[in-house]
Design brief:
single chain, mainly alpha
Amino acid sequence: MTEIAAPPGAPLTKPQDIIEAAGHPVGSGNMKPEYDVRLANEDLAPLRKQKWSWYNIFAFWMSDVHSVGGYVTAGSLFALGIAAWQVLVALLVGIIIVQVFTNLVAKPSQKTGVPYPVVNRAIFGIKGANIPAIIRGIIAIAWYGVQTFLAAQSLNIIFLKFIPASAQLLEYSFLGLSALGWISYGILWVAQVALFWNGMEVIRRFIDWAGPAVYVVMIILAVYLVSQAGWENIDFDLSDPNLPDVGFWGSIGLMFMAIGIVVSYFSGPMLNFGDFARYGRSFSAVKKGNFWGLPVNFLFFSLLTVITASATIPVFGELITDPIHTVERIDTPFAILLGGLTFVTATVGINIVANFISPAFDFSNVAPNKISWRMGGMIAAVGSVFLLPWNWYSNPTAIHYSLGVLAALIGPLFGILIAGYYIAARQRIKTDEMFTMSDKGAYWYRKGYNPNGIKALLWAGIPTIAIAILPKMIADLGGFDISWIGNFTWFIGCGLGYGLFVLFEKLDPRVPSFAGETDGISDGTIDGAAATSDAEPPAISAEVPVVTDAKA
């Protein structure tokens, strides 16, 4: 076993941390003696080494895009009732917007080497940062359960095909889920926890091959269906022929709606992308990975999706926009096994990167001395079961009124973060100050909270939630229907959050920019790796107490 010395003053390693801290050897988080244990552990502290290449970021986005949800979303856009070229233009515009904003949110974490919730300490305050962390964490827990349930449905199909007797398990149910469903859900729950438990480096290796593997099967599926249908029988217009002609201005409105759907679909992982960008070896590597992983990858995936979905019409006599059902209709053992396992892998991939890692960091940020990265992830995994996602996922109204409230806050949180880092702080953060509870600390503000951040979140969040909830409520009660505005809540919330925070900081400046200082400053205006005086921390002394790497 390799023995690695713990930094002086570091908190004692908990049992759940003995294997690795966030996928790295114990001690790789730069835990300095002056860091307060109520704010820091080896998972949240600035990384000593940032090793991810552009391909690792590219693979991250492949895992995020290549899912059943991504397939259905892309396919639904081609059924809006506008021409295929208009959908492609909307897709391109939407995904470029996502790319631009993802680059913006990536920089503070890549430069400082800390995850999303820690960066928020510079904007919301040392304690106030827990507000956006908890909001994002709860959203991730809910969707973690949903994605696990969707993957379990794929596994059900495999069981029913190869073990016919398993059909009897469908006759028994508990808490709204069949016995077979519980078995499939349990298998995938354990598999995802095992993958997560092995740390970020193992997750990186998993997503490096998972995304390309899904591409291979997607291409095989598309080629097979097109060969069965004949290229001349493929029509990319998937809209219902009974839909009325929307006209020129109507089609423009639908294009904007498609743009809003694309941005909203990526809003969750876009907000906490800093959790991954922190591992990038340089900001240029992160931007390159975002370019190949977003506009290039998403457009290619969307084309594969529409080709495959279009081919289902002549082959099966109906439009099928769910890849699981498409594979099931082929009805050959090899196709069902290969397709089912592939889409299980794809769903596990997006679940890990979008809904597991985020709450792991978010909940660890609340009490770092008690909750490690792994423990934070386990809170999310266990919490997802208690939410019983299969009972409310099939009810769009339940999703709209429960998660809709929290999801409406993603835009304001994003806008506040961008305004705080780029305008108020001028891309200058004193990293060590994010790990002190001293009331003299730069980010202590007022009792640990930045009043401007809290006010901006409230003033931007309340109207955004109202816009997300009230139009549907009015329509459900028989009033006029403007529920389409719900597709733009991210833009509205982001704009309000950004504008209000800039205004409040102008009227009552709180966020320091450390003008003229250089010592310990992470300056995002400087090219290259994180520009701090501690960018290359000294080697760990061999004279301090030793923590032995062991199995838990």
